[in-house]
Amino acid sequence: MSGIRKTIAVLPGDGIGPEVTRAALELLEDCAAAFGHHFELRGLPFGGAAIDHAGSPLPAETLAGCRSADAILLGAIGGPRWDALPLAKRPESGLLGLRKELGLYINLRPIRPRPALHGISPLRPERVSGCDFEIVRELAGDIYFGEHELRGENGNGRARDVAVYSTAEIERIARYAFGRAAARQHRLASVDKANVLATSVLWRQTVTSVARDFPGVALEHLYVDNAAMQIMLRPKQFDVMLTSNLFGDILSDEAAAIAGSIGLIPSMSRGAAGTPALYEPIHGSAPSLAGKDVACPLGAIYSACLMLRESFGLENEAQVLESAADRVLERGYRTMDIAEQGSRVLRCSEFTNHIRGEVRDALMHSERYGWGV
User: Fold this and answer.
1) Which of 22, 135, 210, 303 has a 20 to 30 Å separation from 175 between CA atoms?
2) Which listed residue (70, 132, 253, 293) is catalytic?
3) What pLDDT, in 10s, does the model give residues 278-291?
């Protein structure tokens, strides 16, 4: 596939968000130039930056720009300067609002430790090598979108957060997860807490029912506490993991530790067909690192690769960028957060330039790497 035209809404956000997003955009522009594509990049205010700019974490202009785009690339949001604001006005509320307005009910996080970085994983290399699984998290329901109540103060407070799921909400995410598993290794692990939670009882019943339509996929049910333990003990047992919003938030961050850093994991949030998907690294805004040119851009770069693959169908282009990053890592180049003994530590911009150089080399000598340009 070549010569496509796509519009990408770019939400750099806060903290290190603009820096890591810049790295991803430079590689996307290199990719477009090499393969004859045209990516129109539309920068829009979002999160804390949008609060400062327009008084809202999700201005109307940003929402409209996201709706009209083919895909959305987000850097990071939040920071202590906005922590004193009410929950509904903080940068994070803009992300929840964007998910709701665009109907983004699927979150996909691939867990694929890079071979050159096995040394920074807390697990032994033999447990990490060959690990490749996906976490499918339901994104539009559960306790995050139920009723919230906080009353009282001075030692007499009382709080309530309500988790709510319907059969239809569970069924649609389950069908997506079963489809992913059917295209991979035909194994699905569904995670719940059905021994104590009513929402999890419904979850397990519904997932079991959907499984009848996917006879080629082996279904396993796990309680969330056991799933958390198994991710650390035997991560290679998993192919696709399906879970609810709250459990998925926690488990996917835990799984990121396998790769050695939360700064290495990309994610996709998507809804119904025809709706633009949102791509973002799962790390935070790291305000203490902002503006110092030291942040690791790989989570943002891998998110751009995920966008090429999932939204645009550009598998070859995604592989070119990922392989270029792998070769830079294999040569010992690192940003400070993923450095090992003997590494050559580079700034974010320097690290990105090395990847760009590898991309150019691969495209100039495509026969060496097996790329079809």
Assistant:
1) 303
2) 253
3) 999 999 999 999 99
> Active-site residue 192, yes or no?
no
- Catalytic: 225? yes
β-strand 277-281 against 266-270: which pairing, if any? antiparallel
Fold classification of 122-259 is: Isopropylmalate Dehydrogenase (3.40.718)
Q: How far is CA 220 from CA 183, 190, 208, in A?
A: 17, 6, 9
Which one from 132, 144, 236, 369 is the annotated catalytic residue?
144
CB 329 within 8 A of CB 360: no
- Cα–Cα distance, 74 to 279 (Å, whole number): 6
Sign of the torsion angle spanned by Cα atoms 324, 327, 329, 333: negative
What is the structure's pLDDT at 102? 96
Q: Which one of 3.40.718.10, 3.40.640.10, 3.40.50.300, 3.40.50.150 gives the CATH number of domain 1-113+275-373?
A: 3.40.718.10
Burial class (CB in 10 A: 0-12, 13-18, 19+), 213: exposed
Q: What is the structure's pLDDT at 273?
A: 87
Q: How many residues does the chain have?
A: 373
Q: Is 144 a catalytic residue?
A: yes
Judge contact between 343 and 334, C-beta under 8 A.
yes
- Which residue among the candidates 192, 193, 302, 337 is catalytic per the annotation? 193
Helices (H), 36-183: 48-54, 60-67, 91-102, 125-128, 167-182
Q: How many angstroms separate the CA atoms of 343 and 327, rounded?
A: 14
Phi, psi values for residue 220, rounded to 5°? -130, 135
pTM given for the model: 0.92
pLDDT tens digits, one per residue of 109-167 = 999 999 999 999 999 999 999 999 999 999 999 998 888 888 888 888 999 989 999 99
Q: Is 139 helix (H, G, I), strand (E, B) or coil?
A: coil
- Domain range annotation of the chain: 1-113+275-373, 122-259
Q: Provide the pLDDT for residue 58.
A: 97
Contact 186, 240 (CB under 8 A): no
Marked catalytic residue, from 249, 293, 326, 361: 249
How far is 167 from 154, CA to CA, in rounded Å? 40
Q: Residues with Cβ < 8 Å from 342, sequence gap 6 or more?
A: 332
